Amino acid sequence: MRNEEPPTASGKDSGLSALGFPAPGTPGASQETTSTDLLPSSGRPVPGKRNLRSRLGVGEIAFRAILRAGGFLVLGIEVLVGSFLFYRATQALGKAGWSFLTTQARNPDGGKFGIAAVMVGTILIAVVAALLAVPLAAGTALYISEYAPPPIRRFLIAMIDLMAAVPSLIFGIWGAFLLQWKIVALSKWISDWFFWIPIFKVPQAERGDPLAPATVYTSSTFAAGVVVALMVTPIACSIMREAFSQAPIGEREGAFALGSTRWGMIRSVVLPFGRGAMIGGTMLGLGRALGETIAVVYIISPVYQFQPYILQRGASSISALIALKYAEGTPFDVSALMAAGLALFVLTLMVNFIAAQIVARSRSGAVSDA
Predict the structure, then answer these.
(1) What is the DSSP code string of 200-231?
(2) Rounded distance between C-alpha atoms, residue 182 and residue 217, angstroms
(3) Exposed e or buried b for every residue in 298-319, given b needs 16+ CB within 10 A?
(4) What share of the chain is helix, strand, coil (3-state, %, to 5)?
(5) Sign (positive/negative) of CA torsion 257, 259, 263, 265?
(6) In angstroms, rounded to a whole number, what is the distance separating the alpha carbons of residues 199 and 207?
(7) How far is the C-alpha of 81 from the C-alpha of 76, rounded, in Å?
(8) Which of 109, 235, 277, 339 has the fewest CB atoms lying closer than 10 Å?
């Protein structure tokens, strides 16, 4: 066997020089630094730090500045809107106090007013709309992204975008003069068979009464919710469709390779991946439904008391209240309406913020830092 000589100090110095480290004794090396300081216990040289950050070009810097300015502009507008509403509502809030949130009656000039009734009506209309819109939006989004042939897919995407562009006034007129009269039979059937559920009860009509007037079932929370559901469906459908279409191709092919059917692949890959977008789209649609005004004004028959029966005539919402009473209100009445608008603004902002957080933390809302 050959006896190998241990490496000499000069061999170590030349190896360090080849790796970019200054050898001891050279002008670039510190007098206090030795080769053992540069070597860990394993005998391998310590690698130097590399700067992996790339320099941004002028166009990228300008683009980031524009996006940052746009974000701050939106935030500033939100702050200005909230500040304006709070300033105009100060007079009414100072007189009503915390009872403004619990009082049902609405008599500002008489000193007794609140948003309890209209807030409940707003939430009921939005919930009815969300319960109807979410299954429709999810089914449409799944069909477009997973089943529809390319020509039909392009047509449906264009139609959904067009539906989102239809003014709410058109939806309101259509719902008031056509749709709500077509769903009277459905409202009666729900009331006759599910009357034991309190919200489906209609006290103004007897169960199974064929002579019950149709007007008992019109201008209701249910009718307004159906119309608003058709308005928020495009928003929820677009968010869900984008998330479903971005499900990882590798996971899709892996599911098929393991013998999964198309529905099995959708259930195990697409739906889990798009769960966050489904929740976020639902809440964004809910926020849109909370603030709908014109369509609700055309349909409902306003009542300013607690109305839990969604199939019975009579409903209320904050946005409809403001639209109906603003033009004829006294200065103090306008202040009370601004206070109601402030409450709706805060509620909608909270819903949209929660939706944005859910989407951002989900796989479908995750982004790459690259």
Answers:
(1) G--TTS-TT-TT--GGGGSSBHHHHHHHHHHH
(2) 11
(3) bbbebbbeebebbbbbbbbbbb
(4) 70, 0, 30
(5) negative
(6) 14
(7) 9
(8) 109
Contacts of 266 (CB under 8 A, 6+ apart): 142, 146
∠ CA 311-236-234, nearest 5°, is 85
Half-sphere exposure of 194 (CA within 13 A, CB side): 12
Report CA-CA distances (Å) from 335 to 43, 109, 154, 220, 305: 78, 11, 48, 28, 20
Give the whole-angstrom CA distance, residue 48 versus residue 16.
12
- Alpha-carbon span 255 to 245, nearest angstrom: 16
pLDDT tens-place string over residues 318-331 = 888 888 888 887 88
Alpha carbons 312 and 319: distance in angstroms, whole number: 20
Q: Which pLDDT belongs to residue 142? A: 93
Half-sphere exposure of 9 (CA within 13 A, CB side): 6
Give me the domains of the chain, ranges plus CATH numbers.
58-365 (1.10.3720.10)
0.85 exceeded by pTM: no
Whether residue 176 is predicted with pLDDT greater than 90 in this model: the reply is no
* Alpha-helical segments (H) within 28-149: 35-38, 58-96, 116-142
Region 217-232 average pLDDT? 90
